Amino acid sequence: MEIYKNKASEWFKNLRNKICNCFEEIEKNYSGNMTTLQPGKFQRKIWERPGGGGGEISIMRGRVFEKVGVNYSKVYGKLSPQFQNKIPGAAKDPTFWASGISIVAHMNSPHIPAAHMNTRFISTTENWFGGGIDLTPTFPEEKETSFFHNELKKICNTYNAKSYEKYSKWCDDYFFLPHRKEPRGVGGIFFDQLNCGNWEKDFSFVKEVGKGFKNIFPKIINNKLNNTWTDEEKRKQLIKRGRYVEFNLIHDRGTKFGLETDGNTEAILMSLPPHASWP
Amino acid sequence: MEIYKNKASEWFKNLRNKICNCFEEIEKNYSGNMTTLQPGKFQRKIWERPGGGGGEISIMRGRVFEKVGVNYSKVYGKLSPQFQNKIPGAAKDPTFWASGISIVAHMNSPHIPAAHMNTRFISTTENWFGGGIDLTPTFPEEKETSFFHNELKKICNTYNAKSYEKYSKWCDDYFFLPHRKEPRGVGGIFFDQLNCGNWEKDFSFVKEVGKGFKNIFPKIINNKLNNTWTDEEKRKQLIKRGRYVEFNLIHDRGTKFGLETDGNTEAILMSLPPHASWP
Questions:
Q1: A263 found inside a domain
Q2: What is the pLDDT along chain B (279 residues), one digit of tens a residue?
Q3: Distance CA A253, CA A190 (A)
Q4: How many structural domains comprise chain A?
Q5: Considering the domain boundaries, does residue B99 fall inside one?
Q6: A184, part of any domain
Q7: In chain A, which residues have their Cβ closer than 8 Å to the Cβ of B61?
Q8: Cβ A277–B277 below 8 Å, yes or no?
Q9: Is the pLDDT of residue A262 over 80?
């Protein structure tokens, strides 16, 4: 298991580097109407978890990416009694280990969707992967949405023929705001407690998800990289982001779990948009 | 009890009218650098609760008040089984009745604190009042804070000599963000399950709280009514408002209760600021 943990954790860290480089390239390639701003660069901040382990937050505030956070973490220790019953395999033994990468990108252009990607490996007396990719456009476009879902379907098909149906439904169910009776975005894929008994197979799928994100999201961005927008479109983006805040603070399990277990607040709330409104 | 319910509910509605008029007057009296905008006027929206009763939202977007919401409600019916054990006196009988007024004011000027006031009367097999007033400045000023607390102390002293100490501590404990290790604002008073056995005495205190807010907050506003501010001060106000959003969506019991019991989302989230940031 130690070998598996290291392999997963190293891979997440490496993916973090690749994605940060890729996003910095996009910043450099930009030639739209915000070129008075310098291309953004990631700033990195290391944090330690009092109970064991820690992570690295990378944040970039640029001209394409209004705010994008990439968090890599590797944490371990013992779960508090109140959480032992909430985490699979922890009831018998509170020892846990978890590593993952989490990305949330809020874009300057209201025409480019906000994007979220996460993959993680968790180990208690049980071991599993979890993760997903989902998109939150202010102005959903059918062509973009179907391109996105088709790419995700291809990734899921590398795992098995039924995963796309399962994981895209899971995503729709998860990213839903009941108090607004509306979805957070246009869906994507979401999976948890992935363990088919063949670690390499699961890991291989998780790698496809990570690489897939690095492949798909830049294509979506580049389609509209230098397009302009109106104040009214920006205003609508900020309202849509208000819903994003509502979802993350009221419903998101990761956020809740993090805050209730004294996680790193800055890393957990990195996902919140730079500006949001409730006019 | 029906007479008491009507008396409380009518009084809350009447206070709503007085406060709305008072805030509209402030809008008219303004002569600072935002006079290109028209003085704000409250817009009213009636909502019905599917299970019984409803309320009236009054919202004003003005030049002094960037966004202020005043919600009056009178709701009744039966609590769902999951909430019967959370509400005093409801375990034996799920029938409930509740009426109240709730105000949240977010000001254009970063020098004028955001303010919150709420009073309510709730009846199950038990009956009680609850409420409070608290202030959230971006830039706390000792003189303003002590004026505010002194006025609240006078109000509490009309009830009994120990209430200020008790209710101001309760307020500090309640409006605290554990994940930020910081208070939401500079406190105020907070009380719940108020029932000394003499309904008229409790009601009389609640009326003092309502009238007190209508008296104190305009004084705080008028002290700085026409002052200007810098972009940097406004930026800090938006960050402070981000914390306000975090408190309301993660911790506030009223918000949680409202959203989980299918309350009116617009009325519940009326408290959120017009703009907030997490830069």
A1: yes
A2: 899 999 999 999 999 999 999 999 999 999 998 888 999 999 999 999 988 999 999 999 999 999 999 999 999 999 888 888 888 999 999 999 999 999 999 999 999 999 999 999 999 999 999 999 999 999 999 999 999 999 999 999 999 999 999 999 999 999 999 999 999 999 999 999 999 999 999 999 999 999 999 999 999 999 999 999 999 999 999 999 999 999 999 999 889 888 887 789 999 999 999 999 999
A3: 13
A4: 1
A5: yes
A6: yes
A7: 279
A8: no
A9: no
Residues of A in contact with B274 (CB under 8 A): 277-279
Kindly determine whether residue B277 and residue A279, on different chains, have CB atoms separated by under 8 Å: no
Set of chain B residues whose Cβ sits within 8 Å of the Cβ of A180: 265
Domain extent at residue A232: 2-271
- In A, which residues are within 8 Å of B242 by CB distance? 272
Residue B50's contacts (CB-CB under 8 Å, 6 or more residues apart) are B262
| Alpha carbon distance A205, A211 (integer Å) | 10
Cα A259 to Cα A245: distance, rounded to the nearest angstrom: 15
Q: Do A277 and B278 touch (CB under 8 A)?
A: no
List the one residue out of B41, B204, B1, B181 whose CA is nearest residue B119. B204
CB B213 within 8 A of CB B17: no
For residue B133, the surrounding DSSP H or E stretch is: strand B127-136
Residue B153, CB half-sphere, CA atoms under 13 Å: how many? 7
Do the Cβ atoms of B278 and A274 come within 8 Å? yes
What residue of A is the nearest CA neighbor of B59? A279
The active-site residue out of A106, A111, A116, A149 is: A116
Identify from A180, A241, A269, A277 which residue to disrupt to test chain B contact, counting B C-beta atoms within 10 A and taking the largest count: A277
CATH no. for residue A26?
3.40.1500.10
Contact A61 B279 (CB under 8 A): yes
Q: How many Å apart are CA B75 and CA B77, to the nearest integer?
A: 7
Q: Over the stretch A5-39, which tens digit does the pLDDT of each residue have?
A: 999 999 999 999 999 999 999 999 999 988 889 99
Does A277 fall in a domain? no
Q: What is the DSSP letter of A40?
A: P
Q: Is A136 exposed, middle or buried (0-12, 13-18, 19+ CB in 10 A)?
A: buried
